[in-house]
Description:
Elements: H1 2-5, H2 14-24, E1 31-32, H3 49-61, H4 74-85, H5 90-93, E2 97-103, H6 104-119, E3 125-129, H7 133-141, E4 146-150, E5 152-153, E6 158-159, H8 161-169, E7 176-180, H9 193-206, E8 209-214, H10 223-236, E9 240-245, E10 257-263, H11 267-284, H12 291-301, H13 303-334, H14 342-345, E11 350-352, H15 357-367, E12 369-370, E13 376-378, H16 387-397
Parallel strand pairs: 1-12, 3-4, 3-7, 7-8, 8-9
Antiparallel strand pairs: 2-10, 5-6, 9-10, 11-13
The structure holds 4'-deoxy-4'-aminopyridoxal-5'-phosphate.
Residues 36, 104-106, 132, 180, 185, 213, 215, 245, 247, 258 line the site of 4'-deoxy-4'-aminopyridoxal-5'-phosphate (PMP).
Amino acid sequence: SPLFSAIEMAPRDPILGITEAFNADQSPAKVNLGVGVYYDDNGKVPLLECVKKAEAILIEKYAPRTYLPIEGLAAYDKAVQELVFGADSAVIKEKRAITAQAIGGTGALKLGADFLQRFAPDSEVWISDPSWENHRALFESAGFKVNTYPYYDATTRGVNFSGMFAALKAMPAGSIVLLHACCHNPTGADLTDDQWTKIINVVTERGLIPFLDMAYQGFGDGIEADGQVVRRFAEAGGALFVSNSFSKSFSLYGERVGALSIVASSADEAARIMSQLKRVIRTNYSNPPSHGGQVVATVLATPELRQLWEEELAGMRVRIREMRQAFVEKLKAKAPAHQFDFVMQQRGMFSYSGLTKEQVQQMRENNSIYAVDTGRICVAALNNKNIDQVIASIAKVL
Length: 398
Ligand code: PMP
């Protein structure tokens, strides 16, 4: 048909391309550091004990599979809101926050983008340079012009704060600013508390619309500590969008569990926002799937399971920190002329390692070690069995 014959091949996803090349590699010693998933020390994606227990409880109920409400399971939305904003948050008490279950963090971002396109169609979106590669495409597909603000500074291996701050200061009122609430993907470089204070002030003063993406709560410094940025923005009093994801923190990638929260200035405004958000959901997929939401709601609302989850999440966080430390120490021993201490300062699953595209390619060709061309490595894919090979390969290409 002429309809189809004119269709061109879409560009390949660069990160999925790495996984394809990795899968085709016959070397028994191959290591994939290009992934965006947490692996345990055996190189496996874990199934958390708290999830197993919650699923056992749910199975016992043999509940009928009715539709969930458009905005998702009420118990889930409530538990998520308390996790994200804090149970004693004023925005919850004053009913100024609304939360809708979403199809993962990606679905939450898309709901927020579609909602904003209806009510702020003339605003432009600003994402960090660099950012999670889907941010741009998501907001562009919702109809926005997407710009970048300076973020990563390759010379300091940290945040170019003055550049970022100046960019926010120059944005027109009503601009939508996408910020990573913690554990910046892809760099691992986060802002300090003082820097956040300055960002919150400039966002508030200039009337910008903050959209916080929190895909890694609990992977940085802990569930509470990682949630601080969201809470501080909520206290600042302006409009606020928050997308969050449980893909990593519950190791529930394929169940697609996330949520979008919006903070308004009154309960009445919040109710109107929710009614409009429900229209966005209804016309996209009607209502979310129930299993993942039931599991997360059960864990969060059952004290023993919640404690277990917090322990298991702490286990993932600590293991990542140990791998960062081992990475730095082992490189110091093998390549003492090079400085990698910054890897300990980074947070979350990823590290901008500073490796160049050429070095990444050499590692792939010589040792079957796969990283992203930007030098991004997934620290959560390192383990006690593969780290020495990885270090040896890096030391050779430095
Ligand atoms: N935001 C960021 C920063 C992410 O890294 C990711 C996924 N890795 C997402 C959103 C999407 O999360 P999900 O997989 O739950 O859709």
